[in-house]
Design brief:
The complex is a heterodimer of chains A (290) and B (309). Chain A is mainly α. Chain A is built from twelve helices and no strands. Chain A has one domain: MetI-like (MetI-like fold, Orthogonal Bundle). By secondary structure, chain B is mainly α. Chain B has a single domain, classed as MetI-like fold (Orthogonal Bundle), CATH 1.10.3720. In chain B, a hairpin with a 4-residue loop joins strand 1 and strand 2. The two termini of chain B are 43 Å apart. Classes of the chains: A mainly alpha (290), B mainly alpha (309).
Chain lengths: 290, 309
Amino acid sequence: MKSNLPTSISLWRKIVNKLMTVLVLVAVVLAVIPLILILGDVFVRGAPAISIGFLTHLPTPVDVPGGGIANAIIGTFTMVGIASLISVPIGIGAGIFFSEWSNSKLATISGFMNDVLTGFPSIVLGLFVFVILVLTTKQFSAFAGGLALSFVMLPIIARTTSESLRLVPMTLREASMALGVPRWKTVLRIVISTGKNGLLTGILLAVARATGETAPILLTASTSQYFAKSIFQPTASLTVLIYNYATSASTSWQTQAWGAALVLILIMLGLNLLVKLTVGRNLAGTRAEL
Amino acid sequence: MQFRQLRGDTILKIILAVASLFIIVLVVGLAVELSLGSASSIFKFGPGFLIGSNWEPSQNVLGALPFIYGTLLTSAIAILIGFPISLGVAIFISEKLKSHQTFGFMLGTIIDLLAAVPSVIYGLWGVFILIPFLRDYVEKPLHNSFGFIPLFSGHPFGYDFFTAGVILAIMIIPTMSAVSRDVLSVVPNSQREAMYSLGATDWEVTGKTVLPYARSGIFGAFILGLGRAFGETMAVTMVIGNIPSISSNLFSAGATLSSIIANDFSESTGIFQSSIIELGLILFFVALLINVLARLLLWRVTRGTRVKF
């Protein structure tokens, strides 16, 4: 076979090689710049807006000073809480099934569906809850928002659970079963307790993702100027508040949008820090976006 | 004893199976409920909905073409800008930093952070920072110099297809670069060594061996990025202007499938609402198709080694 590779490195090949190295470096710079700019702008523009009053007061009408985001912060936590109550048990259950019964047809199909669900636009999930819950009860609510968010969290939790349980060495399972421990006890006591860091990571990643979601909540919980009296009322959230304020014409609301964005970023960073603290060495590669 | 053990196993297996069955039910339920919700629109407009180019809710003339067009155009811009950058980042981390694993991991983590930034914050940043910048330093010069080309013919206001495409590019870079870098990292070293031993330069090794070897996985990363661009809602809604339009002019306001749902659903009733749900149904099927395709491609290239994404 004739080789079409030249035998010595010509000047042209050297130039091409250097050029590509430079292009690759330019790509890295272009990818990192937006992150620095976005985080920098949020801190610079958001910090002046933040005060104790901003965190503890209710929103005020347009251009009335002293408005805060207290109800939005509580609303976000409420909805993420509801979403966690729904998605954590189901997600972990499904994740255990994917990993421990990985040969079954159900696990294959459901695992594939789970991957597909991960890539679904969150607005479609919001629209789904809008159709099944908001249209039928004629009521935007924190519960509907939480349900929509739970569908965002579910595939993340299931995937991380099964990934981390698969890292538990097979010999541990074999050793347990060889001692006469039944399979269900092996799974619950040995496999889960070995992989529990991974489970926790998955939950935190999913919570972080849900905290930053806007579209599903916009369609299901709407927003409100007040503290919600129950979870069956329209409820404010940080993300929807940022959306509404950023697209308003009021400069004081726009400033507050930056302040709320900083609060949101700090919550997200806190959650990411928690992930870094809880994450096992073996799961270090698991990513936030999944 | 034997019997009780068996019963415990069965109970646990059933509980867990129900949990994983729930995921299948959810995906099927999505399709069913969105179809039911858009039934009156489907019956009224039929398949013509997909090619109807007018969206006049007040006159009950509703067609999805402007939004399909907007989604395709903004995603195309995003891919055009984002894909080469993502590939560059992946090559840098997996090839150039091969012997500096820690630094590569750090850089990867930093870029992953971009994926963790909420979409509404991209939108906020887009409205107040990116729009003025692009309008004054990119769109106006392009318009002044190349205004004779239809792409750049419109007077730039900033709220347009182009800005939406740029912000989408920033948002899909983490997804595409992360998956490409996982795919490149499973290319066997023997491939590279064989190439080096023939006297190839670094770039020749990457361009003629590593990339071709990983091409179906890179295509999978490309498709996943495309899927993210298709479905991305809030940032696009905030910068695209939300006026249905089919225009070859990049500096014209437009709307995408997801942006019009977010923008219009709250004022909608009756057939208008049903049509909006049908837009969601279109988005559902597009997302389904894209994700199935991407997973199959990635599965092909990484068979055996598991890729996390």
